[in-house]
Design brief:
mainly alpha; 7 helices; three-stranded mixed β-sheet; DinB-like domain-containing protein; globular; Four Helix Bundle (Hemerythrin (Met), subunit A); DinB/YfiT-like
């Protein structure tokens, strides 16, 4: 089975996405669901589809659902002290930091060192611009890697837990993490947007890919 977000409609700033992004599943003999992909290039092909789809969810939210800056900054009563803007900024940080690290000479990844972008939390247009820029950057980086690399990039992850620790990881693994992390925050955003702001979202917004696969397999 092949899993990806559909993104057929063109938009500004060279961004391609659907006005109603959703997971779609199509059969593929080359990549059946039970096949484990170990080749780094093939992994990136699949991660690119889901990664772009993840960013498309944020872009769709900011273009078509959130229409006022006040909706970004409204403090949630069900998700303690959270706002849509803070969740978006936080999940965006992980994509941005990973892409920046992948092009640095140190190969040292640290998600705890974030330059907090309050403008992104408070401004719908700033947030939209940031996600569109990161989406285009992700395409650029992944296309180059898919064409030119035969192995995954090794990275050193620094984390405070609260003890400061160092782990060996890789670009592909961390891209998978950024996508999974984004889905988690989209689920929290969904609760705020639908229950507190009374706005509508696509059914697949904030739903994990495996959940969708399991749901469709039971139909």
């Amino acid at each position: 089975m092949k899993l990806f977000f559909s993104s057929p409609i063109s938009a500004t700033n060279s961004v391609q996405l659907s006005t109603n992004p959703k997971f779609s599943i199509q059969p593929s003999e080359q990549n059946p669901q039970d096949k484990i992909i170990q080749n780094p290039q093939q992994q990136l092909v699949e991660l690119k589809k889901i990664g772009l789809g993840s960013l498309d969810q944020a872009i769709h939210l900011l273009r078509n659902v959130i229409t006022q800056d006040a909706q970004l900054t409204n403090k949630s009563k069900i998700i303690c002290c959270g706002t849509v803007g803070k969740h978006l900024r936080h999940l965006h940080d992980h994509f941005k930091i990973l892409l920046e690290t992948s092009e640095s000479r140190t190969n040292t990844l640290n998600y705890d060192v974030r330059r907090k972008n309050n403008f992104m939390e408070n401004s719908r247009q700033v947030a939209l611009n940031e996600f569109e820029t990161t989406r285009n950057k992700l395409i650029q980086v992944l296309d180059s890697r898919i064409q030119n690399l035969n192995q995954d990039q090794k990275l050193n992850l620094i984390s405070v837990t609260p003890a400061k620790m160092k782990f060996q990881t890789s670009f592909n693994r961390e891209l998978w993490f950024a996508i999974s992390h984004a889905i988690h925050h989209f689920a929290l955003i969904r609760a705020i947007v639908t229950r507190e702001l009374s706005l509508k979202l696509p059914q697949s917004f904030g739903v994990a890919p495996n959940t969708i696969i399991n749901f469709k397999s039971k139909l």
